[in-house]
Amino acid sequence: MSEIEPTTRFSDRVDTYVRHRPSYPPEIVRAIREGLGVAPPAVVADIGAGTGIFSALLLREGFDVIAVEPNLAMREAAVRAASDRTGPFAPLAGEPGTLSDPPCFSAVSGTAEATTLPDASVDLVTAAQAFHWFDPPRARTEILRITRPPHRVALVWNTRSLDATPFLRAYEALLCRLSDDYEKVRNHNLSDALFASFYGHSRFERRVFPSAQTLDREGFLGRALSSSYVPGRDHPRHAETVDALARLFDEHQESGSVAFLYDSEVYTGCVA
């Protein structure tokens, strides 16, 4: 989907990703459990796991998780956070500090098309903010290989609203103006026909949970720069982009903050 290799395009912004990317509403994991009839101690392959944001939610629910991530820097960040229980892996308020039989977390170098996992080794595949980077036909074949019947798959996104507020409309216009490939790689390009083809003749369900991320100036700049389509430090338009983002924040902030509004989407079904 881009001239930049998907497996390496986040390498220069891992720290920013860890600090400023939002998590997902907990209702998403419940929707997966209910929609697919799957529950701990099932084993989940979280493909394109990145720094482990969604893996952490699955672990908190009690699932054993194998994070499949091709980007070394992102995978190492997930392993560090899981080991130290920092970032998304930090305990929730009221969560016991130690579990008598805690779920297992591991991370492997692999892609959606070549996970390296054994045949029929997992009960569920998840992909959070990742499926739009996959080669769907090849990923489908690999998922059928590694999952046990009925081959459950959940695809998840925080899909940012493009026009719900003047700020979001201005942010969208800025991305279209300054990014080299934003319009090519954003997940808004995915179609119902693609999902139907991926899931096959099996039915799938889409559920949406509204969510929001309120950001101060530092948080907004970090959240924007964590996106791979925003010009990074080595890009000739990086300084111009940072200046434009700062002006945008100043023009639209209210009481020192702006808000990203999301439709947190989950597609659940069995690949057949």
What does this protein structure show overall?
There is one protein chain. The protein is an alpha/beta fold and 272 residues long. It has a domain of 190 residues: Rossmann fold, CATH 3.40.50. It has ten helices and seven strands. It has a seven-stranded mixed sheet with strand order 3-2-1-4-5-7-6. Helix 1 packs across helix 9 and helix 6 runs antiparallel to helix 10.
What layout of secondary structure does this protein have?
Elements: H1 14-20, H2 27-36, E1 43-47, H3 53-61, E2 64-68, H4 72-84, E3 105-108, E4 122-128, H5 136-146, E5 147-160, H6 166-178, H7 182-185, H8 192-199, E6 204-215, H9 217-225, H10 238-252, E7 258-270
Parallel strand pairs: 1-2, 1-4, 2-3, 4-5
Antiparallel strand pairs: 5-7, 6-7
Brief write-up:
The protein is α/β, with parallel strands linked by helices. It has helices spanning 14-20, 27-36, 53-61, 72-84, 136-146, 166-178, 182-185, 192-199, 217-225, 238-252; strands at residues 43-47, 64-68, 105-108, 122-128, 147-160, 204-215, 258-270. Helix 5 (136-146) links the parallel strand 4 (122-128) and strand 5.
Supply database-style keywords.
10 helices; seven-stranded mixed beta sheet; 272 residues; Rossmann fold; single chain; alpha/beta
Number of helices: 10
Would you count the extended β strands for me? 7
> Based on helices, strands and strand pairing, what is the structural class?
alpha/beta
From the spread of the alpha carbons, the general shape counts as globular
Low-pLDDT ranges: none
CATH class of the domain at 11-160 and 185-214 and 261-270: Alpha Beta
Rg (C-alpha, Å): 18 Å
H-E order:
HHEHEHEEHEHHHEHHE
Give the full name of the CATH homologous superfamily of the domain at 11-160 and 185-214 and 261-270. Vaccinia Virus protein VP39
Question: Mean of the pLDDT scores?
Answer: 91
